[in-house]
Write a structure and sequence with these properties.
Elements (H helix, E strand, L loop, with lengths): L3 H18 L11 E2 L10 E3 L2 E4 L2 E4 L3 E4 L23 E7 L4 E8 L14 E2 L1 E3 L1 E2 L9 H6 L5 E2 L36 E3 L5 E5 L29 E6 L4 E6 L1 E3 L9 E2 L43 H7 L171
Antiparallel strand pairs: 1-5, 2-5, 3-4, 6-7, 8-17, 9-16, 10-11, 12-13, 14-15
Length: 483
């Protein structure tokens, strides 16, 4: 077998001859080694894997020719078998809100076919670990001084508080989990258990925080927070105003030292989540694969019939909207709104009664409902409308029609900031009257266009009192205050 250097010389010589002779046919095909895209046949590109060195990621000098239209580092025929769907990449993972745990059911990560051939959907696989500089890493102080922040401690131990991302507890010794596939939302990073071990779920223990004028972060030393058993730190998120934990990720590499890439496919149908028109209902190319067709059993009878494959497989989409037949709750109506407010099996665009209160949506007529709903998305069978403005009380921000909203400050809690025209809140600089007489009797005719209270809550909800006077400043307007 030729060495790589010998192969490079031979390939370089051949390419030089091809360029001199002007023979385009000398370009190499899929799976062949290459230096640049120009070494590959037309329609192919030179895909380079990456390696990590000194804390940085570098593309390998040599790559392989592949059909990688989306340039995400995984070719359509990533295993170079001649088929782009015999071994689709994918990680089948689910997040369970009831337990807050991320479960990985299956994964195909390397030497596989791109599951979104036209959409960039590749993510670098990161593992949680400890730095060689961490106190828990069992190396000498002299070695720790020499170590860089990107050097990982590869200690494996069955001590629960030792330098591992997390230990399973039941079996011991094996770090668990090593990764979190799903993105954590803005709930404050990942969660830690009582041992400082990472769990793949949003943070539940919320500690409020603010940085002082000098920028001192109180989260770093807060005794209420579990300290991590691995690299990572607590810090104050100034946008969320809570302490958030950020673990230190290390890029995962395979046995040859190359950075590992992965693509999510929650429903495990061979089509990646970012290009799947039903990301949680199997309806992809794998429905035709006898080994995986069971995933496309839409009626739950334990068998996937040819009719089911014909109707739902291959991303079937009869109405041409963004939802495939397998998950489209309005399969004959082209509409990207697939919400089903009342959970009756019909999405709002084809549901004559969106909120399920037996009052028909405006303009709809159906035997299951009557009338003309004045709150289309909030159930209100009584249809009460105190101020006769066409909006039912259930969905009217100003029930009594006095132009002061019940939740005027937008806090989500009605009455937590009652208006007061004299002392405020009501306007920026109380008292809130351009005409001084209006602070004594806002019902005067000349007060009709005077200052209107804003950014505060109606102090007499359910009773129209435009003036918002509260003489005794008890939170109840004069119009509804029995005292």
């Amino acid at each position: 077998m030729r060495s790589r250097s010998t192969l490079a010389r031979v390939l370089g010589a051949v390419l030089s001859m091809c360029l001199v002779a002007g023979l385009g046919g000398c370009r190499v095909g899929a799976g062949s080694e290459c230096l640049t895209d120009s070494d590959c046949k037309q329609g192919l590109v030179c895909v380079h894997k990456s390696k990590v060195a000194d804390g940085r990621t570098y593309p390998d000098k040599w790559g392989k020719c592949a059909d990688d239209l989306d340039q995400d580092g995984i070719g359509s025929d990533g295993d170079y078998t001649g088929s782009s769907f015999d071994n689709r990449c994918g990680v089948h993972v689910e997040f369970h809100p009831d337990t807050g745990i991320e479960t990985v059911y299956a994964s195909v990560i390397s030497n596989c076919d791109d599951n979104c051939g036209d959409v960039y959907n590749t993510t670098i696989l990161s593992t949680f670990g400890c730095s060689a500089k961490d106190v828990c890493c069992p190396i000498s102080d002299a070695e720790k001084v020499k170590a860089e922040s990107f050097h990982q401690c590869h200690d494996v131990t069955d001590q629960i508080d030792a330098c591992s991302a997390c230990l399973s507890g039941a079996t011991g010794g094996s770090p668990l989990p090593s990764i979190c596939y799903l993105n954590i939302d803005n709930a404050g990073g990942v969660d830690l258990d009582e041992h400082g071990c990472i769990h793949c779920r949003p943070l539940r223990n919320r500690i409020s925080c603010t940085k002082d004028e000098d920028g001192v972060d109180p989260c770093a030393t807060d005794s209420r927070l579990v300290q991590p058993a691995c690299s990572g730190r607590w810090s104050c998120d100034t946008d969320l105003s809570i302490c958030t934990f950020s673990p230190k990720p290390f890029e995962d590499v395979d046995q040859d030292g190359y950075v590992v890439l992965f693509q999510l496919d929650k429903d495990w149908d061979g089509v990646g989540d970012q290009c799947d028109n039903c990301p949680e209902a199997a309806n992809g190319i794998e429905c035709r694969n006898p080994n995986f067709a069971y995933r496309c059993d839409t009626n739950g009878d334990g068998e996937t019939s040819p009719q089911e494959i014909e109707k739902y497989g291959d991303q079937r989409n009869s109405d041409g909207d963004m939802w495939g037949n397998a998950c489209d709750l309005c399969p004959d109506v082209a509409d990207n709104d697939n919400r089903d407010l009342d959970s009756d099996g019909d999405a709002n665009p084809c549901d004559p009664d969106d909120d399920g209160d037996s009052i028909c949506d405006p303009g709809q007529h159906h035997w299951t409902c009557t009338g003309n709903d004045n709150c289309q998305e909030i159930p209100n069978p009584d249809q009460q409308d105190m101020d006769f403005d066409g909006k039912g009380n259930a969905c009217d921000a100003d029930v009594d029609g006095d132009e002061v909203r019940e939740d005027g400050d937008g806090s989500g809690v009605k009455g937590d900031k009652p208006c007061n025209r004299i002392t405020g809140p009501c306007c920026e600089n109380p008292p809130c009257c351009e005409n001084p007489l209006c602070c004594e009797d806002p019902d005067l005719e000349e007060c009709e266009n005077d200052i209107q209270c804003r950014e505060c809550d109606d102090n007499c909800p359910g009773l129209s009192n435009w003036g918002q006077l509260d003489s005794d400043n008890d939170g109840l307007g004069d119009a509804c205050d029995p005292d």
